[in-house]
Amino acid sequence: ESNHVNAHEPELVPHKGIKLIEGTHDPDDVDQICNLEIRDSDVFVITYPKSGTIWMQQILLLLESKGDVTAVSKLSKYSNADLIPWIELKGNRQAFITAPSPRLRVTHLQHHVMPSALSQRGKVIYVARNPKDVLVSYYHFHKVANMLETPRDFSDFFDKFLRGDVFGCSWFDHVKTWHSHKEDMNMLFITYEEMIQDLQSVVRRISLFLGKEMTDEQLANVVKHSTFNIMKKIPHANYEQVPGDLLNHHQGRFMRKGTIGDWKNHFTVAQNERFDETFNKEMKDVPLSFIWDI
Ligand code: A3P
Fold this sequence. Notes:
Blueprint: E1 12-15, E2 18-21, H1 27-33, E3 43-47, H2 53-64, H3 69-73, H4 80-83, H5 92-98, E4 104-107, E5 123-128, H6 131-144, H7 154-163, H8 171-180, E6 187-191, H9 192-197, H10 199-209, H11 216-224, H12 228-231, H13 269-282
Parallel strand pairs: 3-4, 3-5, 5-6
Antiparallel strand pairs: 1-2
Helix pairs in contact: 10-11
The structure holds adenosine-3'-5'-diphosphate.
């Protein structure tokens, strides 16, 4: 079955050991990122795609406004991504240089192209998600996002993901590398599954990490307004203002399912065995475990 809707499928362009999306990223911009000056007040949320980036954007926006939801919803003509932008998107590097503090940014970039100054200054929050659910979420997102190639079918995408032939490259390399640099920068390493299981304590950890003084009531507000059921109704958390030529909103919502274990509805037994084999080989020396279902 073919899902092709685009006349032209954008390509992934290999560049300095990573892959860039044609039209979305500018290789020259990306080359300059490693030299950016970092301020102590900078905060970077770093994720492999589909690991909860928008969730962290929402939490940081709410923490900035001390849980004041009206302040956040006044911003609803923007997307979460306008408010906490991707550093690697075309044109965003210049804006970063002159932006007032605190500069809150997200990125899917790999460690070797990020500012080297991050080991001395600024704060990093890395969010990792179990890669079976990442694969499934990414598969659906490829059908919605017109800047990504529409998958031929699930099995084809499964192979591409395991080969690292997607934006973000190999999930294993991304998580392993950032995890290995956990100690040489000011980094909070959290998982999507921890957020699902105990959002309140994760939000508390984030607020402590960022040095935010919050009352219990303010924290409770942050938690409430970053739950899936609330976020799925917020237009700016669904990129609803993004035009249909970039996101095909009829193919599905950005806030899709928000659970642990949806991979079980997609993987065959054989695919699961293959995945486990790769996971066990790639991650055998990494002291990191994931929750695969609840
Ligand atoms: P699913 O496709 O599995 O539903 P990213 O922002 O990195 O692209 O990640 C998107 C994924 O995070 C989607 O996963 C989305 O539903 C999920 N997500 C976003 N906000 C969430 C929340 N508040 N609770 C649970 N999952 C959330």
